[in-house]
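#structure-requests
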Amino acid sequence: MSVYLTPIRWQRRSPITDQGGIGSCTGHAMAGVIGTDGLNRTGRSDVGEELALELYALATRLDIWPGEYPEQDTGSSGTAVVEAAKQLGHIRSYWYTRSLQGALRALQFGPCVVGFPWLTGCEDPRADALVPYTGHSKGGHEVELVGWEPAEQRFVFANSRGPDYGDNGFFRMTYRDLGHALRLGGDVILPIFPETP
């Protein structure tokens, strides 16, 4: 358990993206992971909107819901987008969890894609980029988990709402709030890259 007392902040090499009015948060989160350092791996600096939309489009073909992007902007799931990344050769496998301890364990190896119900309070981060996990659901949202601040008991995420959101595109959630989000149906997926041991 002592490993979880160590701060973690994986460096993102690619710029923060902005999904705009497209429901492509899954593709943007996965593209963010590809553009972020992990254990024994340097993130790609050339990752952007094009790859995010390519991943999203394939995810909409792989998921369980009818409709495919770009003809239909249906949204998708974290499991579908990591399958898309695997099919496109970006990752070799992935590890899935729905627990806080699992999230902390996964984060030791690299950034993760995290999906959970996005509440209205998340739209307005505080000055310290902490989102209040309050209000009613606006639907599901996928983000990139990049860090852990044990002293404050907070997780750090990259969003796909442009650099004006939160702290230059990043935000924080408390340990307790992420636990609540996972209990509401959220999940955490660690993509495993070919070069990762």
